[in-house]
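thread: overnight batch results

M.L. [08:02]
morning all. the overnight job finished for the chain we discussed friday. pasting input first so we're all looking at the same thing
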Amino acid sequence: LEAHGHGRGGYIFNLTTEGRTLARAALETNRYVGPAPVPLEQFSHTLEMESVRDVHVRRQVLEGAFSDLVLPEGVLDALGPALNSGGSIFLHGAPGNGKTAIAERVGSLTSSTIFLPRALMIQGNIMVLYDPVFHEAVGVDHGEETFSATSSIFKDGPVHDQRYIKVKRPTVFVGGELTLDQLDLQYDPYSKVYQAPFQLKAAGGVLIIDDFGRQRMRPAELLNRWIVPLEKGFDNLTLHSGIKFPVPFDCILIFATNLNPSDLVDEAFLRRIQYKVEIRSPTRDAFEEIMRMNCEEFSVPYRQDAVDLLYSAYYDAKEFSPRGCHPRDLIKQIQAAAAFKGVEPRLESAAIHQAAHSYFLVTEEEFQAGIPAFDLAQGG
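M.L. [08:03]
and the structure it wrote out:
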C-alpha cells in the first residue's frame, strides 16, 4: 500500500502496482467473500459426530407427529425402524394418499440442531455449503450450557467456531424438476466457486426425491447415481478440472412415487433400499375419519350422508378409487363455490355433485347415464 498525506494528519491509502497485480491474481483464483472455508476432512469428522444415524425416534413421538393424519394400518410400524436406521426409505402407493406429506413429516422428526460449515475447502477450491433455502439458521444463545457440547466438537472454548452456523437438521425436497447434473458440483465460472449438490446440502438431515420416476431422465440413470452412496456411505464428486474426491453421504434418503416400483427399480437397487413402505388408499372408515377432520379444519358441518352420497354416486357407481386427499380437495371446491354464491359452505347434494363433477371429470352425460337412486335427505 502507498500512503499519502491528506490534510491535518489524515492519509489516503492506494494499492501499489504490485498490490494491484496480487489482487488481480487473487480474484482470478476465486471471488468468494465470506467466513473462512472449513477443510473437507474437518467437516467429515464433525458430521460423523452429528450424524443423522444417531437420531432415534420413539413410537409416542412418531404418533404425535402424525396425529393429524389418518394413516393406513402398519405405516407407523414400518416408518419407525426405517427412521432409526438412518438409511433409505421407499414410499410407494397410489397418488393422493399422503406420501409427500409423510416424507415432509419425517424431516420434521429430525429437527434437532447441528453446526454446519458455511463453506468447504477442497484441494484449494471453495465449495459453498450453507443454503438459506434449505438451512434454517438458529439463534445462538451464548450461555455456558448451550456451548458445552459445541466446545467438545469445535475446540473453541465458550464460543463456537464462526466458520460454522447453527441450523436445524435440513430437509431438502426435490421433485420432477431434478436433473442428473444437479447431483454434482455446480461451478460458477465468474466467481470460480462451487455450489454443493442437493445430497450434500441435506447432510445430517433428510433428502426427499418426490415424484420419483417422473424426472427428465430414465429412472435407471438416477438409481445408478445412488448405488455407491447407499452402499458405501460416501459420494464421489468431480471438480471442473476432472479431479474426483469423496464426500460423506449422511442423510436419510426418501424416494416417493405413485408408479409401480417393479417398473422402476431392479432387485439390486431394492436390496440397497431396505425399507419399503406402501401407502395404501383409505378404507371406508378411514375415509369418514379424514372427512370429519377436514370438515373441522375448514369449519364445514360434517354429515355422514355426504360420505354415503360420494360412495354411492362416484366410488361405487363410477368405480373411482377413494384417496386420502379427496375430502380436503372436495371441501375446498365446495367452499369456493359457496363464497362465489355468498352462502355458507355445506355438504349438500348440489354442492357435492358440482364439486365432484369438476374434480373427477364426470360429464353430465356420463352422470345421467348412471345417476344413483340415493340422494341427501335435505339436498340443495
